[in-house]
Amino acid sequence: KENIYILGIESSCDDTSAAILCDNRVLSNVVSSQKIHAEYGGVVPELASRAHQQNIVPVVDLALKKANVTKDQLNAIAFTRGPGLMGSLLVGTSFAKSLAFGLNIPLIDVNHMQAHILAHYIAEENQNTPPFPFLALTISGGHTQIVKVNNHFSMEVIGETIDDAVGEAYDKSGKLLGLGYPAGPEIDRRAQLGNPKAYKFTKPKVDGLNFSFSGLKTAILYFVQRETKVSPDFVKTNLNDICASIQYTIIGILMDKLKLAVAQTGIEHIAIGGGVSANSGIRKALKTGEQKFGWTTYIPKFEYTTDNAAMIGIVGYLKYLENDFTDFDVMATARLKI
Ligand code: KG4
Ligand code: ZN
Predict the structure, then answer these.
(1) What are the tens digits of pLDDT across the range 123-137?
(2) Could you tell me if 53 and 145 lie in one domain?
(3) Ligand 1 closest atom vs CA 181
(4) I want to staple 106 with a disulfide (CB 3.0 to 4.6 A). Which of 163, 221, 273, 325 is the partner?
(5) 116 and 236 share a domain?
(6) Per DSSP, what are the bridge partners of residue 76?
(7) Does residue 337 lie in a domain region?
(8) CATH number of domain containing 100
(9) Ligand 2 centre distance from Cα of residue 78 (Å)
């Protein structure tokens, strides 16, 4: 059987990425993360799309070089159609269309959220792939969902945030504490040095499997204002304990909903994805879930959990096998459901 070469392109937010896959194996996965947004404390859409325009050609070029593959060997081009920032999506979409048209090869559109989940199907040594059906918890700066995955292309969102994403909760809380952007990794680092029960933040009451994180941010704001009035150096002197308490609350929220999802579906295979799956607290909590509740959990390699094109490429490969190609009049779609 002949090998299939896929170029995957991801440009939905602030990472420009290109990957080359040979069947389900990743030959290269180049990610250019835009540094510019740190100065603004968050992603600035206009700057993001401009940076994508500058990055896309060199990033694709480098991915081909690293994989030692020429563009004439490509069988198809897969790209992120959505969801994401419109200006950012347009860059990847237009580029993918033009290149596929020029090379006269099929175009494959990919849903970014499906890709975060199907990243688990990238062939990696010592990495098990979850059996169907499984539950996927996608947690990042842009998303927070629990998805019931019936097979590669049949997925149901059974819970999601009604306001902020969990990564946003980390980043916005960090901002209130004077930490740089993105604050998630720094809160995580400090949390491991602090007392998680030093301060108590109430968990939101949200029905069913949905999440809410905006209340937590407000609670932290009031808490910091109140304590700083009493002692101006409060945040500085208690930063590790504050971070540990915030992390404890967030992990508690995620775990409560996961437990409920397992109870409701009877599915005990749980896969995670998205930038926040790097978090030490969630990783520990999942391990506890394995020991305490008999769950089996799946955590992909870090480079496939944050935004990357390898995950777009693997969906491209799976769709290629199904002859599931896209018309050239396809449009980037900012709001795209799974
Ligand atoms: O998947 P990602 O790279 O980009 C998208 O948002 O799609 O995720 C980035 C998010 C940021 O909000 C960042 O603060 C958070 O992931 N993050 C973490 C950790 N590492 C990254 N949050 C908590 N703990 C971490 N260790
Ligand atoms: Zn993402």
Answers:
(1) 998 888 999 999 999
(2) no
(3) 14
(4) 325
(5) no
(6) 6
(7) no
(8) 3.30.420.40
(9) 16
Residue 328 lies in a domain: no
- Counting ligand 1 atoms within 8 A of each CB, the residue from 85, 88, 170, 302 with the most, and so the one to mutate, is 170
| The pLDDT value given to residue 329 | 96
Query: Cα(227) to centroid of ligand 2, in Å?
Result: 35
Per the structure, the complete domain to which residue 211 belongs is given by 130-299
Mean pLDDT of 52-60: 95
pLDDT greater than 80 at residue 1: no
Q: Mutation test of ligand 1: which of 37, 176, 254, 306 has the most ligand atoms closer than 8 Å to its C-beta?
A: 306
Instruction: Give a yes or no: residue 331 inside a domain.
Output: no
* CA–CA gap between residue 186 and residue 193 (Å, rounded): 11
> Which atom of ligand 1 is nearest to 278's Cα?
26
15 pairs with which residues across the strands?
33
Is 78:316 a contact under the CB 8 Å cutoff? yes
Q: Is the dihedral of CA 184, 160, 93, 277 positive or negative?
A: positive
CA of 10 from ligand 2 middle (Å) equals 10
Residues 292, 278 share a domain: yes
Q: What is the pLDDT of residues 258-290, one digit of tens each?
A: 999 999 999 999 999 999 999 999 999 999 999
Confirm whether 94 is domain-assigned: yes
Burial of 112 from C-beta contacts in 10 A (0-12 / 13-18 / 19+): buried
Is 141 close to ligand 1, i.e. is its CB under 6 Å away? Answer: yes
Q: ipTM more than 0.95?
A: yes
Distance 41 CA to ligand 2 centre (A): 18
Per-residue pLDDT reduced to its tens digit, 143-198:
899 999 999 999 999 999 999 999 999 999 999 999 998 999 999 999 999 999 99
3-class DSSP assignment, residue 167? helix
Q: 288 and 152 in one domain? A: yes
Q: Nearest CA to 87 among 38, 141, 14, 36? A: 14
Residue 114 Cα to ligand 2 middle (Å): 10
78 strand-pairing partners: 8, 108
CB 174 less than 6 A from any atom of ligand 1: no
Count of the separate structural domains present in the chain? 2
Are 23 and 73 within one domain? yes
156 and 285 housed in the same domain? yes
The two tokens of residue 312 are 């777009």
Same-domain status, 85 and 174: no
